[in-house]
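Posted in: Protein Modeling Q&A

I'm a second-year student putting together a small comparison for a lab meeting, and my supervisor asked me to include a predicted structure for N(6)-L-threonylcarbamoyladenine synthase. I've never done this before, so apologies if this is the wrong subforum. The sequence is pasted below exactly as I got it from our records. If anyone can share the structure token output, I'd also love a short note on what stands out.
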Amino acid sequence: LLFSASRAQQDDTCAAVVTSSRQILSNVVVKQHDLHEGFGGIHPSVAIEAHQRNMPGAVRMALEQAHISIHDVDGIAFTRGPGIGGCLSVGSNAAKSLAAALGKPLVGVHHMQAHALTPLLTTPTADLPKFPFLTLLISGGHTLLLLASSPTSFQILATTADASIGRAFDKAARALGLSWGTRGPGAALEELCRMTNDELESLPDIPPFTTATFLSVDEPLSSSHKIALARAFQTAAARQLCAKLTLSLQNLELKGVNVRDVVVSGGVASNIFLRERLRAALDEYSSDERISLHFPPLELCTGQRFDVSTDSQGLKIIDTDNAAMIAWASMHRFLAGDYDDYTIDLRPKWSIEDIRV
Ligand code: ATP
Ligand code: FE
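Accepted answer (user: helix_wrangler)
Welcome! Here is the predicted structure, written out as tokens:
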């Protein structure tokens, strides 16, 4: 058994219990969206205070839902970075103190590596992605196209020139004056897009499309104009990701690198429209279905969340940031006996290319 006293990255406070045989015994996510909505973004000191308040309860609940005692846990993992130092420290201090007091091994995890490896936890055994695979990490802090050659070796093939795609969704949602709802601004924008099929003006294909969204906003905005702008934004964002993904596949093929699987993860990967566009782009690229596309499941586990939100079709949604993914990303190290010292430092800035450094 393995227990992860964290993610504690920016917003949600998470704790989970995961086994080496890929079972998620519990996966608690304590949300703080409504705390941040007033600021129009994540406010670090508010986030730190909320983590401090919520961490003990999240840990307690993760153990209760897994029906185990802390003494049944064999190791404790936490998010070492990258992220806001103050937020990371809440999870890491909880994990280190627990591990030291109990005499259990400790492993610090790279947050983006955990995103990238999630499909190895959640995909049915028969369809598991095989190294080397391509990973499209699309989250609040990152837009990364990676070549994953092993659980610890990642090469950055492409990244964003300006804001991350998640932040772009957040900014566009704010420009359109959307309320966050339980699932946050990006999901609110996606939901708005589903309300009609109309397209407005097209937005540029390269990053200024977020700015273009702002420039197109006239007050007061009619609701149909709002929906059309949201759709134009979402379409422009998806178009870019599809183009870069197929370009990279072409380049790798030219270099003789044999990629059979593409893994998409990060909070933005829960966007259904984007999932459909990526699938269509890959089908067009490899019509003989040589390449499989993997997404984190919308429903990672049922009945184990502190705060399970529901989308408009009544599906239970789990945002992809969670402690189960952190626990899973630490598993190969626990199994190999490769532990960290209780004195291990945080890495608020930490490239995914330097995991082993
Ligand atoms: P990072 O993982 O880079 O450190 P993070 O952990 O804050 O950042 P995630 O929690 O993985 O990021 O993703 C959060 C982002 O995903 C937010 O910007 C949010 O608006 C966006 N997001 C969530 N759901 C959707 C959706 N359905 N459509 C678009 N964006 C979404
Ligand atoms: Fe994340």
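A couple of things worth pointing out for your meeting: The longest strand covers residues 143-150. Confidence is low (pLDDT under 50) at residues 300-319.
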